[in-house]
């Protein structure tokens, strides 16, 4: 499996972290993981909620010094 | 030895950079110390935002075009010879004709392209106005439209983040003007859980759509379109019927980027402050082609270009960097046929749109003309 991809969406107002994630997932293979970084607290809630809706897996999420992070695995 | 600046892409970003740079280093160009070469795909320059008005008969096609040679300062060497390979290790760019250009500084400004073919059935079933051919077809189809269900479908990533809202509100007023609104229902779909990526714009759009009687479906990532059955289905499991489907197709970066192994999906990894390739400080990246997580818009390209011009001019004349890009973006938003608003933001400051007004709509119309001054590096 390839290395986990990181999307640094800190300071991103538009298109915003979730849109970046959606675009990145399209280019990935099933089974690969992506970690998104965001300065927007909403991301910590929005991303897992969306992933659950579509059927992707949220592997990890939490807070680091200056950002929230969520790791999503592409499952379909 | 004379220094060579090579710009790949003669759209908005490439053109502003070429013209702007010339204005700073005229002396060096005159003495033959620096040369600026641009590689493009066409002898005409198109004002893309003008496409928005084509399906509604609000602009004449010829207003969108100027000869690229006239838009460019005559001191810029211009070849219509698309790049087929960009080799940043060996500092060489190969073109369609077989010519190989070397450089001291490279600017990648190859923009983005529409990829409706990335979603099954979308190209066959939908209309779009993001290129001239699509806008013409949409105009002809709208001429024949007699009412029914319209779906305005937004896919990511795409350039010009506000265009989908503009199209939606303009469609409504267009149909009202034709007396068809009573027989029409518009549903707007958006990939995330609100009506626009920018929260304040989404907050403005929701009551505006409610008041206009426009329906919406959020968390809608298009899975496929059935052109025969006239349905569109989302990854989230929602299916909508349509009589007329308008899409903002998903985009990729230019083919040459993927083929040169420069970035997934054609998006070039870019340092968000220096606007250079992270491993090659002699390679600048500007406009839609960057992987920076901000809007892909002409305005973004313009503010980025200003930074690239300042840094290139300083590097060429004084051997030092001038400044960083702060993430600034400014966008006009048409809120109907007669009113508009605007948003601006940067990496630190969130957007905060004001109340729509007729004056801001007029500003946008004025900008449609001023564009050519901006491309020339004068604005
Ligand atoms: C309908 C519509 C409405 C819009 N409205 C707005 C708006 O209101 N405000 C706003 O700010 N932005 C708007 N935009 C977005 C704006 O037009 C783009 O973001 C902007 O043009 C990006 O500039 P660019 O130079 O990165 O790319 P482009 O202007 O697309 O230029 C890229 C150039 O690179 C060339 N190229 C590609 N591959 C190669 C190659 N291999 N070799 C050489 N050249 C190559 C292409 O031919 C093209 O000329 C709109 C766009 C559309 C379609």
Could you characterize the architecture of this molecule?
The complex is a heterodimer of chains A (76) and B (379). Chain A has helices spanning 17-26, 42-54; strands at residues 5-8, 33-38, 57-64, 67-73. The model of chain A has no long low-confidence stretch (mean pLDDT 91). Chain A is built from 2 helices and 4 strands; from the N terminus they run E-H-E-H-E-E. With 76 residues, chain A is of the alpha+beta class. Chain B is globular and about 70 Å long. Helices cover 30% and strands 26% of the residues of chain B. Chain B has helices at 12-24, 26-30, 68-71, 122-125, 132-144, 163-177, 199-212, 255-259, 298-318, 358-375; strands at 3-8, 34-40, 44-46, 65-67, 77-80, 83-87, 92-95, 100-102, 105-108, 112-114, 148-154, 184-189, 215-217, 222-226, 231-234, 239-241, 244-248, 251-253, 276-277, 280-285, 329-334, 340-345. In chain B, the strands form 7 sheets. Chain B has a 6-stranded mixed beta sheet. A 4-stranded parallel beta sheet of chain B has the order 13-12-11-17, covered by helices on one side. A 3-stranded antiparallel beta sheet of chain B has the order 6-7-8. Chains A and B meet through helix 1 and helix 2 of A and loops of B.
Q: List bound small molecules.
A: flavin-adenine dinucleotide
Q: Find the structural class of chain A using helix and strand composition.
A: alpha+beta
Q: Report how far apart the termini of chain B are.
A: 32 Å
Shape of chain B: globular
What portion of residues of chain A is helical? 25-40%
How would you spell out the order of helices and strands of chain A?
EHEHEE
In the predicted model, the low-confidence regions of chain A spanning at least 5 consecutive residues are none
Q: Please state the CA-atom Rg of chain B, rounded to the nearest Å.
A: 21 Å
Shape designation of chain A: globular
Order the strands across the largest sheet of chain A as they lie in space: 1-2-4-3
Q: Report the total helices of chain A.
A: 2
Structural class of chain B: alpha/beta
User: Largest sheet of chain B at a glance?
Assistant: 6 strands, mixed
Mean pLDDT of chain A comes to: 91
Query: Which segments of chain B are poorly predicted (pLDDT under 50) over 5 or more consecutive residues?
Result: none
For the sheet with most strands of chain A, the description reads: 4 strands, mixed
Tally the beta strands of chain B: 22
The helix tally of chain B amounts to: 10
Arithmetic mean of pLDDT of chain B: 95
Strand content of chain A: 25-35%
End-to-end separation of chain A: 16 Å
């Amino acid at each position: 499996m390839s290395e986990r991809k990181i999307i640094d969406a800190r300071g991103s107002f538009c298109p915003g972290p979730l849109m970046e994630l959606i675009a990145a997932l399209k280019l990935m293979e099933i089974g690969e993981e992506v970690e998104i970084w965001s300065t927007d607290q909403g991301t910590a809630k929005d991303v897992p909620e969306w992933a659950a809706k579509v059927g992707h897996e949220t592997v990890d999420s939490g807070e680091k010094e200056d950002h929230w992070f969520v790791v999503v695995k592409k499952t379909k | 030895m004379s220094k060579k600046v090579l710009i790949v892409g003669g759209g908005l970003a490439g053109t502003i950079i070429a013209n702007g740079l010339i204005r700073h280093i005229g002396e060096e160009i005159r003495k033959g110390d620096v040369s600026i070469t641009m590689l493009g795909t066409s002898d005409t320059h198109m004002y893309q935002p003008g496409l928005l008005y084509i399906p509604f008969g609000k602009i004449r096609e010829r207003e969108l075009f100027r000869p690229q040679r006239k838009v460019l300062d005559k001191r810029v060497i211009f070849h219509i010879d698309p790049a087929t390979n960009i080799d940043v290790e060996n500092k060489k760019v190969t073109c369609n004709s077989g010519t190989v250009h070397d450089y001291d500084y490279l600017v990648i400004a190859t923009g983005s392209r529409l990829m409706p073919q990335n979603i099954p059935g979308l190209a066959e079933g939908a209309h779009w106005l993001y290129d001239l051919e699509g806008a013409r077809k949409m105009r002809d189809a709208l001429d024949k439209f007699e009412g029914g269900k319209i779906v305005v479908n937004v896919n990511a990533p795409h350039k010009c983040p506000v265009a989908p809202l503009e199209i939606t509100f303009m469609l409504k007023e267009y149909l009202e003007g034709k007396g068809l609104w009573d027989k029409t229902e518009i549903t707007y779909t958006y990939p995330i859980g609100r009506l626009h990526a920018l929260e304040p714009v989404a907050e403005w759009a929701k009551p505006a759509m409610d008041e206009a009687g426009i329906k919406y479906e959020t968390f809608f990532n298009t899975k496929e379109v059935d052109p025969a059955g006239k349905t569109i289905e989302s990854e989230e499991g929602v299916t909508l019927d349509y009589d007329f489907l308008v899409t903002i197709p998903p985009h990729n970066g230019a083919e040459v980027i993927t083929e040169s192994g420069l970035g997934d999906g054609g998006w070039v990894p870019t340092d968000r402050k220096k606007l250079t390739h992270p491993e090659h400080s002699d390679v600048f990246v500007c406009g839609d082609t960057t992987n920076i997580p901000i809007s892909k818009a002409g305005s973004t390209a313009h503010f980025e270009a200003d930074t690239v011009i300042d840094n290139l001019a300083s590097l060429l004349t004084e051997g030092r960097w001038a400044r960083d890009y702060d993430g600034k973006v400014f966008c006009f938003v048409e809120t109907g046929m007669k009113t508009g608003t605007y948003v601006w933001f940067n990496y630190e400051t969130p957007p905060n749109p004001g109340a729509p007004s007729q004056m801001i709509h007029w500003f946008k119309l004025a900008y449609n003309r001023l564009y050519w001054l901006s491309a020339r590096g004068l604005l």
